[in-house]
Design a protein that fits this description.
Shape: globular
Distance between the termini: 31 Å
Structural class: alpha+beta
Length: 487
């Protein structure tokens, strides 16, 4: 039975689409929910009713026991290329409760991860363990602090259940907030398993939800393609600029809104190396740090293929339209990436040799196995005695070229340092610290590390309060760091 609550108004406009796009589902009943983390700051930003969410009824809502008026719980259908292989997918352990309007007028989804089996579970139990849900909470909040478009975590709640994986683990659910959960894989599903009219229905819904415009200057579906290309080029450039490695860039993990989603085997690069891979299942390095921009356009090509029937009735013309649009990706990506790199080096304007200057520094960092984040941090602080790379002849030659480039700007040193400070984080969610925090929480119910980490991740560009604890480079390990999908 649905309970009315005037302080938390929900709807689910996704249910206005044809029913091939979703399956109506109810979350599994949770007998003993216990709030582990509640993102009060996010709730306040969105204008959600804190008093309700922190009440017993609110907690029951967050785990799916209390179905509010306006809530239509569904699991969304989608397909996707996983490591290059196409397959039918869908929300196998997540249930979308509905949508709400934030206090600034934006529409957001609220979804429960670990909500139990659905039509799309493919033999899985639909549950989630506490460790991976804490990981998503930490990394997504870290990404938000780094000013990277991301889904966010509203709460992690223990279910009190035992979850059987390789071992018995504590069960949990995570409440995820997103502009929507529409993916490239959603369009692939429509193209492969629906009619052209159902594909058009999805495209129109997506345009209305994310790309509102009174008059499209061209074919609206070409406009949709171009906007998604732009969003993804910008997003992936931001990943590269902070050394973030998603780990599983399947088309079903690529949102149309341009938000980072699904923090499974993701991690942040320590030592700079374009071949860095952390995911245990990425044995061939398909989703390595250096490959992420290329995979971005590969995934966008699958999106463009899905849209072909809408781009033009003539197949050859539709393909040409799509190819012309996709050609803009590399131009956009390079523009966003090198503009970001200029900012990291304190450059306000553009010069022809800037790209070479950036690439030369990265080559030196690679050769000396320099820490990515702390190299830029120490350049910003002008602490050139902090790292081995700074003592090399190659770096000294590069440094002189960089200083000459800086002095050509008619900008004060104070402003240059300010630009660098706002683009070079003092802290990231270091892998070893994240693992240490999760281990302490899961094994000993000790959340002190996670709480301190989350606090510094709120302001990673704060140079007035640099955390020695969380900016420390990890010790070299004989065993390469590995991440797992957490399913």
């Amino acid at each position: 039975m649905k309970e009315n609550n005037i302080n938390f108004n929900l709807e689910n406009t996704y249910c206005n689409l044809s029913n091939i796009f979703y399956s109506r589902e109810l979350p599994s009943k949770i007998e003993n929910p216990t709030v582990i983390k509640f993102n009060k700051e996010l709730a306040e930003i969105l204008g959600l009713d804190l008093e309700f969410l922190e009440s017993n009824k609110g907690i029951e809502f967050l785990v799916g026991n209390n179905i509010l008026e306006g809530t239509t719980p569904i699991a969304q259908a989608y397909a996707g290329h996983q490591f290059g292989h196409f397959t039918m997918l869908g929300d196998g352990r997540a249930i979308l409760l509905g949508e709400f309007i934030s206090k600034d007028g934006q529409k957001f989804d609220i979804q429960i991860k670990g909500a139990g089996r659905t039509r799309y579970s493919r033999g899985g139990d639909g549950k989630a363990a506490l460790g991976p849900m804490l990981r998503e909470y930490i990394i997504s909040e870290g990404m938000y602090g780094l000013k990277i478009p991301t889904t966010r975590s509203l709460a992690v709640i223990s279910t009190g259940e035992d979850i059987i994986r390789e071992e018995i683990l504590e069960g949990a659910v995570l409440d995820r907030i997103a502009k929507s959960h529409i993916r490239v894989g959603t369009f692939q599903f429509a193209r492969n398993f629906g009619s052209v009219e159902e594909l058009r229905e999805l495209a129109d819904y997506t345009l209305n939800r994310h790309f509102k415009k009174d008059k499209y200057e061209e074919n609206p579906y070409l406009y949709l393609l171009k906007e998604v290309i732009k969003n993804q080029a910008k997003l992936i450039s931001k990943w590269q600029l902070v050394g973030f490695i998603h780990g599983v860039m399947n088309t079903d993990n690529m949102t149309i809104s341009g938000e980072t989603i699904d923090y499974g085997p993701c991690a942040f690069m320590d030592t700079y190396d374009i071949n860095t891979v952390f995911s245990s299942i990425d044995v061939n390095g398909r989703y390595s740090y250096g490959n992420q921009p290329k995979i971005g356009v590969w995934n966008l090509t699958r999106f463009a293929e899905s849209l072909l029937p809408l781009l033009d009735d003539d197949v050859d013309k539709a393909i040409k339209i799509a190819e012309d649009a996709l050609a803009s990706y590399s131009v956009l990506y390079n523009e966003y990436y090198f503009d970001g790199m200029r900012a990291k080096l304190g450059l306000f304007d553009k010069e022809e040799g800037d790209e070479k200057l950036v690439l030369s520094l990265l080559t030196i960092m690679n050769n000396f196995k320099a820490d990515y984040t702390n190299t830029f941090l120490n350049l910003t602080l002008d602490k050139l005695d902090e790292m081995k790379v700074f003592n090399s002849d190659e770096f000294k030659e590069w440094y002189n070229l960089w200083q000459k480039r800086i002095t050509k700007q008619n900008v004060s040193r104070e402003k240059i340092k300010g630009l660098m400070e706002s683009n070079n984080p003092t802290v990231i969610p270091r892998n070893y610290i994240v693992e240490k925090g999760i281990k302490a929480a899961v094994n000993n119910n000790d959340y002190s590390i996670i709480n301190r980490l989350l606090e510094v991740l709120k302001n990673p560009y704060d140079y007035s309060n640099i955390s020695e604890e969380f900016s420390k480079i990890p010790e070299v390990s004989s065993c390469p760091y590995k991440t797992y999908c957490g399913t």
